[in-house]
Batch of 3 targets.
Target 1
Amino acid sequence: MSEFNLNILGCGSATPSLRHLPACQVVDYRGQLMMVDCGEGAQLSMRRLGLKFSRLGHIFISHLHGDHCLGLPGLLSTLALHQKGGSLTVHTFADGVEMFSRMMDFFCRERTFELKFNVIDPTKRGVVLDLPSLTVESFPLRHRVPCVGYLFREKPKQRHLVGDLVRFYNIPVSQLKAIKDGADFVTPDGVVVPNDRLTTPADLSASYAYCSDTVYSPQLAEVVRGVDLLYHEATYADDSAHKARARFHSTASEAARIARDAGVGALVLGHFSNAYNSEARHLEEARAIFPDTIAAREGLVIEVRSKK
């Protein structure tokens, strides 16, 4: 398995059904687990996928509709019962901090981990998490309540050392990082060894964008331009486009237009209305516009890798 994977825990809308659970995903980046939305059933889905509670460090909430966050109190309580250590940060809006703090103080006062909150401004685009190799950025979406999407983007990677040449020139360990970052090497007698002789090109960085509940917005294509994997809600097929507009949701074909216009690598549809017995129509309509489209399903694991 690669070092950057998307795990689908729930891809339905509004309420749980026999086919789908409400919205929930886990991004697994180099063994660090980051949850995106936390609908009902999140903790059971983590167990089914073999995702360890102890590795969960961040939860990103897109908005405060129940199908995207009602699984959070139960999950946090279970983490305490399993004596999770360290800390866990919930990224949400100011109203969410107040609501979840009150819930946890009532249901789970005794915690084995430090529960932190990071307040997000849903009206602005900005980095909400900065890790050594990855950033997570939030960006506004257009829904009936304040709502954001999330963009996971790997930072540029280091070049690969050519081991034989490193040994040949007897390069000190203290200089290896600078050479990986692109520096030349100067021998003790002043000879400059160019970097492209000592290294091979770095692996390409990968990116993933999560677009939760949103009415079709052409401007969104610029925000997610060029990402390798895009998840975009597709609550309805074209037969219910009028419902999508009225309820500030998108159709599968609208999601595909965003993917096409943004030049993304691949599209994953999700947040399906339980009015449909299958996603066949969603896929047909989306693939007519953007062929590299799949439908999310519970238990699906997708490798996030550069398609450039």
Target 2
Amino acid sequence: MDKYSEIRPYQEDEVLPALSRIAKHPLLTPITSYLFPAEEPDKMSQLISSLKSVEDFQDKVMFFAIKKIILDTSSSLSYAGLDQFKNDKKHLFISNHRDILLDSGIIQVIFHSNNIQTSEMAVGDNLITDPFIEDIARSNKMIRVERGKNVRELYHSSMLLSNYIRKRISGKESSVWIAQRNGRTKDGVDLTEQGLLKMLEMSGSGDFAKDFDDLSIVPISVSYEFEPCDLLKTKELYISRRRKYVKVPGEDLNSILAGIMQYKGNVHIHFSQPLSFQELSVLAKLEKNEKFKALAETIDKSIISSYQLWKNNYIAYDLLFSVDKYSTLYTLSEKNRFIDYVKYKLSDTEGDPKEMEEIFLSIYANPVLSKEKIF
């Protein structure tokens, strides 16, 4: 039996039935109307019905849609560090997590545009809310990450995921993308969860340096000029200061749609060099818990150091701390435009205005603070 059948992407014999279900689903019509308003609704259904593979679905549907989103909602897309992926070596891509869908989606489009094999992508099952979404996700190389279980179930699902990721990479079958943390960064501070690294080590041999070297970890930094869902994140952080934040039904879908539709300005993706065996060997000499802490900090340093800071970040920092430390990096008109943007975003919100503004500015200022701590 295929022990990974519940979490892995669809295989070739499963893709055709899934594409047939997607093509017939009533939700396809409104999705098509949004993404391709000039096309007849039936055209997308007919296209999907004609596809024969995961590669076809990614090439002719998913990547086409993501490219349109980038074109419609961003000023530019730049990237660096791709030269190292021109061979057949597989990697574990660990990136910061700012947008539910687009972080991994844009990375895959970059790979596809440069004739690099796309990776599989680990996605929380909280986002796979019904069979239609599951068909789309698993036809698009998505790995289902099970959450919200009791301790025993969580252990077994973590072991299964760890074994699957290691099998795919060490077997040279596919690279895998995973976010550095469970859920998006809400406050602009990108930190790798040690729990993620401990999950990855569950399938190892016990040789810390070799186990992580086998995974060939590549840190990726995703930088948006305008933070996806900045207002929604502000509201969540405001509520969280007062009580435990509980998501309402449909909130994740709303965040996905907001992230897709919101203007992003400039977008930059930086692919760092894989962590070396030498680096990992130094960490392996530390005490058990210190190893994972130090490995998380190594990944964080790579992500933060290559994070592209924008003028918005510097302006927010100076506004938040009432200084002009970075004033040479932006003009007065650029500062006033960002102030107007903040006022517009917060104009119809409930709560203490000063505190809401402080939280909003912190989301943009914290990447600057993170860089200051490193350099």
Target 3
Amino acid sequence: MFDAIQIDKSEEGQSVTLTQVSPDALPEGDVLVDVAYSTLNYKDALAITGASPVVRSFPMVPGIDFSGIVAESAHPDFKAGDRVVLNGWGVGEKHWGGLAGQARVKGDWLVPLPDGISLKQAMAIGTAGYTAMLCVMALDRQGVTPEKGEIVVTGAAGGVGSVAVALLAKRGYQVAAVTGRTSETDYLTGLGASSIVDRAELSAPGRPLGKERWAGAVDVAGSTVLANVLAAIKYRGAVAACGLAAGMDLPASVAPFILRGVTLVGVDSVMCPREERMEAWRLLAEELDLDKLDSMITEVPMDKVIETAPLFLEGKIRGRIVVPVAPDLA
């Protein structure tokens, strides 16, 4: 038996408990992993609180991320003792996830953890950091280089934003960090932000086309924020969009696209092909300043996960939440 966060649903509604689970209850898969660390992401918070219908079947163990050690494997790419990380693939939504002592998954969903990244650091990075790297890679493919100008990162104090600021700064970009919390200024400049933008500047409806301010953007917000960012992107700039924290709508016009040649690139981390995942994790191992990563981490034990989840929806989470499930494995 092992500890697990479990979400159930009945006629009375959704319930979430920290409980004991038997390995026999785990879903099908060709690799069994002893989970060392998991994490809390915005999507996990939606699942645990029931604020959005993230969970597709019940009972469900949430946790879209985990890192750990392979215990058993029938997959040709993995053997017992391998260090692995998993992000996405519907884990924690349709397939039991990482907020449990063990996880049984498809080996095709796993990525070997690169040398130089510990199991704890892998979850300090997590889906948020891996998504941030996918966004940086997308801007790179669009030819948005440091000499083109400043990059704006929305939701900069959150998980994706924090890592994006650190990665872009390490690559030599000037980074404008958007936040609604002025108290996070020192944190963001410590990550490498060159300027701070008050979220209020981008939250109200704006003009279809504004002054050219930024060469590119990493956007986690969507809605009016993304529309205003698009309106302020320089000629032939690009925006990597990966979130909807401000809403799923996009009240924008075609003006940035047809008058300035702006590119809007959608970034999906859930079903991203394995080859691109491998490249993202390779680059994270090479480029992410692990000392800065430490400043992003807040550890939350398993017995505090359920009460912590609502804080995401209240905008009270900074950086990355790491959940030590069995840290002795590390």
